[in-house]
Amino acid sequence: MMTFHARFGYIFLLSIIMIGAIALATLSSLLMIGIGSMQIGFTVRQSEQARSLAQTCAERGLRSLWEDTGYVGTEALNFDEGECDILRIGGSGNENRSLCAEGRVGPTVRRYEILLGRVLPSIEVSAWREVEQFTACSYE
Question: With a threshold of 0.85, does the pTM exceed it?
Answer without folding.
Answer: no
